[in-house]
Amino acid sequence: MCAGTVERHQRERVLPIPCPSHTQARLVIALSAFTCFCNSYDGDFVFDDAEAIVGNKDLRPETPLLQLFKHDFWGSPLNLNSSHKSYRPLTVLTFRLNYLLSGGLDSRGFHLGNILLHTVVCCLFYDVCCLLICHLSAQAQPTSLQRAPEAFLTALLFSVHPVHTEAVAGIVGRADLLCAAFFFLSFSSYMKAFNAALSQSHCKGLKLCSWRWVILSVVFSITATLSKEQGITVLGLCIVYDTVAIFRLDLLHPWRSNARNVKGQEFGDFIKRQAVLCMALLAIAHVRWRAMGSGPPAFTPDDNPASFAEGLLVRTINYNYIYALNVCLLLCPWWLCFDWSMGCVPLITSAFDWRIAVPLIFWIILTGFTQQALQGKCERERRLLIMAVALLFLPFLPASNLLFRVGFVVAERLLYLPSAGFSLLVTTGFIRLCQTRPSAQRSMTAFLAILVLSHWARCVHRASQWGTEQELFRSGLSVCPLNAKVHYNVGKNWADMGNNTLAVKYYRRAIGLHPHYVQPMNNLGNILKEHNHLIEAEEVLRRAVSIQKDFAAAWMNLGIVQNSLGKTAEAELSYRTALHYRRRYPDCLYNLGRLYLDAQRPTEALAAWREATLLQPDHRMAWHNTVVLFDQLGKLQEAEDAAREALRITPDEPSLCFSIANVLGKQNKYQEAEEFFLKAIQGNLSSAFYHGNLAVLYHRWGKLEEARTQYRLSLELDPSDKGTQDNYAMLLRRMTANADMKT
């Protein structure tokens, strides 16, 4: 028996953890992972889900599948300058599958997919830990479960970590979950390539690996990258694993490692494997770069203030402060927020800012820990720590701003994979303490049990907050009170609920925290416009477009306000400016048409509405106004043709049915007009206006009893309608006269 095997048995005798079977371990891990987030099953589409799911046409069956591979994660063409360049076609394919299975946008199916996928990932991570611990122990049968207690504890900690909530309870987190699944499949495949070699000669040196498993590992790394960008880092983890666990290179003292005793063939095989991994990494990176148009996405200082800070020293300090903050989220995941931008993490710009000490403390601790890991007396533990650190830092590397600028400050879902390395570090530390201080085993075990239970409870609570936007946005106020985007989202949520008073309060607070934040200015301008505070609305919207000149929505809203103020020329210029920055803008064309109508320019109004319907064929208001204007101009046939064309696109739309019914009635096509009036009423039973107009049709048609019934229904719904009262009185006089004539 080799020394490594003796050491393994000696350590196992002091482990205070039960040794479950494979089935038992997977069952407990799956249950913990599932129950943590099962209460998010009936949650809504929240936050980024609106853009990635609800508004993403790539999920619809009518969109060709090929388009998914030409668009980014949010459904925009990758070649657009405004694209985020997030190329994740496999993730979008799973969203599309959810859409087809649920028959549309049923959030429950999407949430259930995330919960089940998280459960699968946790079980895969357990298998990874089993293989990794066995290989590092150099035991005779790497596939056995004599080291399962450590793997079980690591996977259990991973399954209940609260920092996972955003990835699991937020549907867009599917990208992180799917990436993690393929990541662990890739890494476990690479480890399995050495199972036979280690079982045959764990004490005799290195043997040839199974290249089939290596190729499969590369394939899974490709699918991981097509799920999310950080999937490519699994190849780096495989490189570290091969170097540390298989080649057994001592990173601190290479001359002391087993590498100096290996045969030439074994060293050559190691170089070949490293070359294959490196070439695969470079090839995937190159293809990924070409897919996004050979250029990075364009971000603003609002997205990532640290990367736009002046001076290398200031950027470096702030980057390291953010790294430390991410570690704090792993250590104490109590303060969680859906968004960490816009003032949530203020920049460190002064030497007197106390936070400047945080990066220093972070690196002192990290350096000491690394030194301990490299110089530990136990070779197995030393290599395990190196792998844990690699699993912690490598998946985080794409989010570090070191390789390229990213569009966020802190993103909790990006810690999903790094938390696996963190869990392995915690388990390793727990085992070390139990070995060095046997008397503290009970207290340490109790602490670990409390940690798991508290994390589980925190996951349940946090998942419930992700159920609705109202709960989610308000939860951010206590964590990031200086975050302007949090206040903006809370205000937007209040506006959606119809509480404009609170919406205005939070919009103003967001602007106060971030004076150049144009989104709340635009929304605030809209509310002020609705409440007829037109002067202030114009001031707010002018300020928004002066800050962001290409803000098309604000230009359009400014045009609406100016038109209401009678500033026709200025309003037209604002509309034209909006169309300059967004050429395909049907709502702006609709409002431009209304301006032309108010200015007695009907031909131009009809042209604007026609263009709006060409860009958006189901633009109901543009169609409705077109029909009404043709009707007012006496062009009844054109009005009828336009209405029929609109109804082919949006059948049974009440307003269009009502419009064409009026037109047909004026042409004495009473029976067909009646059919459309009844369709309109069926779609809006409480409309006194619809009932009143149907009554007029019956009145003209000579169906006096039907007319009386409809007049009565109309007056029951709106007793104050003077026109209906007069028409009803006229009908009654006619019916009385008819009765007298018969007498």
Layout of helices and strands:
Elements: H1 3-12, H2 22-37, H3 49-54, H4 65-68, H5 89-102, H6 107-137, H7 148-159, H8 165-169, H9 174-192, H10 195-201, H11 211-227, H12 233-246, H13 264-291, H14 312-331, H15 357-375, H16 379-393, H17 418-436, H18 441-465, H19 469-479, H20 484-496, H21 500-513, H22 518-530, H23 534-547, H24 552-564, H25 568-581, H26 586-598, H27 602-615, H28 620-632, H29 636-649, H30 654-666, H31 670-683, H32 688-701, H33 704-717, H34 722-742
Provide the low-confidence segments as ranges: 1-14, 139-147, 201-207
Q: How many β strands by DSSP?
A: 0
Give the CA-CA distance, first to last residue.
123 Å
Mean pLDDT: 86
* Proportion of residues in β-strands: under 5%
Give an overview of the whole structure.
The protein has a domain at 21-461. Helix 15 (357-375) runs antiparallel to helix 16 (379-393). By secondary structure, the chain is mostly helical. The chain has helices at residues 3-12, 22-37, 49-54, 65-68, 89-102, 107-137, 148-159, 165-169, 174-192, 195-201, 211-227, 233-246, 264-291, 312-331, 357-375, 379-393, 418-436, 441-465, 469-479, 484-496, 500-513, 518-530, 534-547, 552-564, 568-581, 586-598, 602-615, 620-632, 636-649, 654-666, 670-683, 688-701, 704-717, 722-742.
Tell me briefly what this model is.
Helix content is 68%, strand content 0%.
Question: Could you name the key traits of this structure?
Answer:
disordered N terminus, mainly alpha
